[in-house]
Amino acid sequence: MLFNTVPLSDCRDVENSLLWLNQNANTNSCLVTHTAFYGWALLYLENNFTIKTYGFGFPDNSARSQSQQGFIHIYLIWWVNGSGLHGQPTSTWFF
Q: In whole angstroms, how far apart are CA 60 and each of 12, 22, 23, 25, 47?
């Protein structure tokens, strides 16, 4: 591996977040994910879990789209403002 998609110090928290989703999310749930977390989600989430990636942009439009498609619970893994990969800003969408 030449480059990790998240800082090494965050790997355990990303893993724990996805394992929590497997245990607690229901069938009306989806994960809206940045490209950095997409591979992680494929590895850790069960096959029947819906994962939607929004690329390298902001999750807001993707989350609204998933809501319009009938998902009741929309989850997002995000960074603390300014401390994530390349200083990603805080999302304005609140779940």
A: 26, 23, 25, 20, 24
Look-up of token digits 């609204």: 64
What would the two tokens of residue 42 be?
A: 């494929």
For residue 24, what are the CA distances in angstroms to 19, 21, 77, 93?
A: 9, 5, 15, 21
**d(Cα 66, Cα 83) in Å, to the nearest integer?**
27
Task: Specify the length of the chain in residues.
Answer: 95
pLDDT, tens digit, 9 for 90 and up, residues 2-17: 667 887 888 898 999 9
* Threshold 0.90, pTM exceeds: no
Report the distance separating Cα 73 and Cα 25, nearest Å.
Answer: 8
Domain residues of the chain, as ranges? 8-87
Residue 66 in contact with residue 32, Cβ under 8 Å?
yes
